[in-house]
């Protein structure tokens, strides 16, 4: 076990005990499974997923991003230490005239539903299994596109790019490492373009010509101008 993992294990274990929660109770409160948390507290989990870290935030009553920050060597922020004005939970879903904004928790919930649906579909009558599988694939693609749009927006706002020091930031890697290491074939040219842009934003090698890279630079600059 390395020092960083041991430190994170201690932070999680101490916070859980401070709250008086068993592993089962932590899971019931929206945390990771008891097995996953046990591995974390023993320092046996090399790299918790972004979802696991967010579930730790929720169940350990930490401010959003605390678990990821603690894993990267920082300190978590307990909700009780935040000013009252910052404790309110933002709306899970908001909208304007032509768009709907979802919180990351909603996206995670959608992903969980998709997985439950997939498991259920494997045990049904073969005559309806095929159309159910097709529906599930469409659902997965929708969730994937929402998550990808969120990841791109986060990286654009943080001014990440091929030459940025944040390219190797542990928090960035935890958020998108697993996502970009997957190998499914993008279903459309637009999906392929977005995935290539996401790889470019994180400094990963891409097979793109100068014209495509110029498009990426302009896209990031445009997004950053809108955030000012």
How many strand units? 2
Q: What's the main sheet like?
A: 2 strands, antiparallel
Q: How many structural domains?
A: 2
First-last Cα distance: 43 Å
Low-confidence stretches: 85-90
Strands ordered across the widest β-sheet:
1-2
- Helix content range: 55-70%
The overall pLDDT average reads 78
Q: What's the overall geometry?
A: globular
How would you spell out the order of helices and strands?
HHHHHEEHHHHH
Describe the protein in words.
- 61% of the residues lie in helices and 3% in strands.
- By secondary structure, it is mainly α.
- It has two domains: 3-86, lambda repressor-like DNA-binding domains (434 Repressor (Amino-terminal Domain), Orthogonal Bundle), CATH 1.10.260.40; 93-227, no CATH class.
- It has a two-stranded antiparallel ribbon.
- A hairpin with a 4-residue loop joins strand 1 and strand 2 (100-102).
- Helix 6 runs antiparallel to helix 7 and helix 7 (126-157) crosses helix 9 (189-201).
